[in-house]
Amino acid sequence: MAHGVPVIASNTSGIPEIIQHDVHGIVFPVGDSQALKAALLDALRNPTKMRQLAAAAAVCVKDFSEEKMISRTMSVLRSLAERSSRTRR
Q1: What is the DSSP letter of 64?
Q2: 3-class DSSP state of 17
Q3: Contact 14, 64 (CB under 8 A)
């Protein structure tokens, strides 16, 4: 996504949290080989659409940079530590 490449991925794990179908890429049901085939054919037949999805994905992925993820994780950990210290009092 960060390199502006079109994304086709199954809806497994955390993928749907990052890639919104037909916005940032094409998401198909995990294990559905026919849906994967349809997604690949769609991508090959619609290069303009895929460029648009890739551009949207490149913008979206910036929310998942290493710096932002570390910052968010540290924020959650600080919040949990503060709650923990308040409940111990």
Answers
A1: G
A2: helix
A3: no
